[in-house]
RNA sequence: UGGGGCAUGGUGCAACGGCAGCACACCAGACUUUGGAUCUGUGGAUCUUGGUUCGAGUCCAGGUGCCCCAGCCA
């Protein structure tokens, strides 16, 4: 039956394409590749491609290569090579081996020489401006919509019919560093009239006198994406080269090279990239946020970098379920952050132990409770998981409760503590509010109440009900901690668009201190997840030191009351 | 006045010529020692115009809208 079928983690159109290739014999195995350029940190947007590549290989019993696309030494650094591997491994992705585009520079050069000898590539001496004009298009930056007749036929380069011997000589000398940057390029000889601009004699090699993070100063020419990616795929025996829709127009070129070279016929298949509301994906803007100190670093919990999500406390399993659960197509789409948050809650609800923590403390005094008495109340660690067991929480005469849990003048539908009202203190007693103490400014600084000794544990022998149960921490046992609450970093749903400075939310970080938590959290370690009852999911930040705990809010609990109050309903 | 890709509730997907379904969000209710979780229920969609067909979200033709491309970036 259907319920015995494992749920696929990859888009059906890709799965079907792979299955078909295997069936008709185009390939006898499956091998995919992750091709990050080591020029920045991984973010949630990369995860989609990573997971599709990973699961595509896995579901077909194949393997995955992690290949760094390091063809532009001006942008790439070893630091990112390491960070990307660390983050991908944290996500749970496993690869058969790590390779680099630069591993193939020698072989790739030999392939270029072959194309030159076949008369399919030539050295062009035109300037960049001349080449751009001859391609039959307007200068960069011109909008297509503004230019009715934008695309004109291209004009062949005056160097297009150079003799093979001359091309070979010039290419060799380009490689040896005899020419200045920008003075010459190697181009494929395809078709200057082709309506697909990428086929109008694309550049294969450009001269760059830049040291490469792996090959040092060996090379003075570096391959372009189009003259590297497909070739590397082929050299590695990659069967399915899965990439985002923006590469659809590159596919004819991808296939042209492999056909002419009679190389292993890797197949490129495209899918839509992930767009997530409120998430910044632009590397340039992300870098600016970090460099200008708007955020604390690449691992700031407000960022949707993998490092940020990790520090914020999002479990990798939640990221995987969220991304693969989107069920992908080739549609351009925008996924709501709320959907991601729902998956976070779902995962955390099952694994996070419950603790009581008061974020905005207000003193509650139980007037009829003995001064010197301390009772240990039994509390359930996780109602979703009985195996998590129980713990005890100390209870005494003076407690802290949440400021939000008391109102001197309660609004409609407010069930919590207010003068004359009785509520349950979670796992402890029922208490009835008897009065308040105010400071000179009229602020409530202390709430007074009496407790019913017959309701120990929160039970009511007489069967009476209260409409609210609130959390608390005993003052004399309370552990003071710092809590960081995060909100959206941006005020617009699509932060990659528009002016960065204009969309920063100035209140995206709220640091609360001191907050009081129950003593059971004393030995909590960085990365550990908890649910603070009635508040949200939190994890211990690495900034925590002995005796000084710092918590990050991963995501809040669903807040029905907050909604009622905000919309004024009820 | 170029080429390519994509159009299903607010959002993301499913339905592979046969009763338009799921998740998130929203709304209502039940239950509750978390205003959490859980359960139940309501509302809401096939871009448009034609055509083929007993029957079209699906096939065909035209139109419209959005996205990608004119780097010696990837």
Main traits of this protein?
disordered N terminus, 3 domains, alpha/beta, Ribosomal Protein L25, Chain P, Rossmann fold, 25 strands, 7-stranded mixed beta sheet, single chain, RNA-binding, 13 helices, 570 residues, elongated
Percent of residues in beta strands? 15-25%
Low-pLDDT runs of 5+ residues are: 1-5
Measured between the Cα atoms of the first and last residue, the distance is: 47 Å
Strand order of the largest sheet: 10-23-24-25-21-22-11
Helix content: 10-25%
- The CATH class assignment of the largest domain is Alpha Beta
Fold-level CATH name of the largest domain: Rossmann fold
Beta strands, count: 25
CATH superfamily caption of the largest domain: HUPs
**What is the count of distinct domains?**
3
Shape: elongated
Oligomeric form of this entry?
single chain
Topology:
Layout: H1 12-23, E1 31-34, H2 44-59, E2 63-68, H3 78-91, E3 97-100, H4 105-117, E4 121-124, H5 128-134, H6 164-175, E5 185-188, E6 203-207, E7 221-223, H7 229-235, E8 240-244, H8 251-261, E9 267-271, H9 283-291, H10 306-312, H11 316-324, H12 337-351, E10 353-355, E11 357-358, E12 361-366, E13 375-380, E14 390-395, E15 398-402, E16 422-425, E17 430-438, E18 444-451, E19 469-470, E20 473-474, E21 479-486, E22 509-517, E23 529-532, E24 536-540, E25 550-556, H13 560-567
Parallel strand pairs: 1-2, 2-3, 8-9, 10-23, 12-18, 16-19, 21-25
Antiparallel strand pairs: 4-5, 5-6, 6-7, 11-22, 12-15, 13-14, 15-20, 16-17, 17-18, 21-22, 23-24, 24-25
Helix pairs in contact: 2-11, 7-8, 11-12
The structure holds one RNA strand of 74 nucleotides.
